[in-house]
Amino acid sequence: MPEDLEGLKEQYLRCVRCGQCRSVCPVFEVVKNETATPRGKVFLAHLLATGEIEANSQVQAQLSRCLLCRSCSKECPSAIPVHQIVTAARAELAVKVPSPVKRLVFRKIWTRPRRLALAAGVTRNIQALGLDKLGLYLRLLPPGFALPGRLPRRPAHTIIPAITPATGETRLRVGYFLGCSTNFLFPAAAASTVAVLSSLGCEVVIPPELKCCGLPQLASGEAAAASALASANSEVFRRLNVQAVVSDCASCTATLKESPEFDGLKVTELSELLLELIQKYSPGLKQIQKPVTYHDPCHLAKAQGITAAPRELLRLTCMDFREMDGAADCCGSGGAFALYHYRTSMSILNKKIANIKKSGAEIVATSCPTCIMQLRHGLAAHGCKTDVVHTVELLGKTLGRET
């Protein structure tokens, strides 16, 4: 279980309100209100823990205005883990001010793969009938409902075998953690991940009983549900006797790495593993000719500190790799944040879109499915034809393993 507010007491008491966090908070940059600052949320959590303020929906609303991007945690001169404090405060509020809708979604549906697949199927049918567009037009649905775009006809787990053998000599047996977003929204990225790993000598195992990584539950205050998911998933991988667990989702990978339930299991970030295999075995690469830029997902760059490996991969696979300004700036997605605070999310995204345009790139590569979803939505809204893909999809093309 993540630490509760009492367990983080020493951390939030160290906040001296210096305001350094204000300079990097993407939400504050847009909202321009002290209550939206990281230090404001830390203070609010402190008051909540001491009982100086009552747990209510207003406090809940204030603490929901955080992307959990970790920009402030990384910048804080006192090394205060602001994201952990906000997550703990949300968990306390979820107990004291429970939301029936959130509990239904994050505890009853999202934790059970069959129910989640059923919900995705219902959404697919709604989209096929055009009811989503009608609901958005009549404002019966929140604008964030348009973010995922049209769901693919089949999720990844129905088209990729449970075990894919290595092409040639087997050098490594890896467990592939197929996250919810990749599975339901980007099955082509999942197919590329498996194909690329296989071509580099990995036997890839996708356990059919995998569940959500637990991040949506943690972010929504359902800490117990998140721990139960981590326990179930870790047990699955231990039984498979894999040498490493990988995921093409930066958020899933960060969550697995930080889960105590995964202690003793080797969780490896995908781009680092792919770069290591390419440098070791030197496969032939046919470079992409179009100009390509890269967006750093927060859960890769800030949560895991990984920025070099994906860029090295892109320099190997792309003839014209270009850095864009603000590559490490948050895109404003933040999982459900874009659903709850759509306008703020889009305002944060606009800055990223402007930097993508300025780069002149025809392709944006990144390593997180929710970032792909957010960037595609923003580029389409601005009338841009720039493509957004997962880094592993470009690598698949250069290896001749297009899916």
From TrEMBL:
Its EC number is 1.1.99.14. It catalyses: (R)-lactate + A = pyruvate + AH2; glycolate + A = glyoxylate + AH2. PROSITE patterns: 4FE4S_FER_1 (PS00198), 4FE4S_FER_2 (PS51379). Transmembrane segments: none annotated. Residues 6-36, 57-85 form the 4Fe-4S ferredoxin-type domain. Signal peptide: none annotated. This is Glycolate oxidase iron-sulfur subunit. It comes from Pelotomaculum schinkii. The gene is glpC_1.
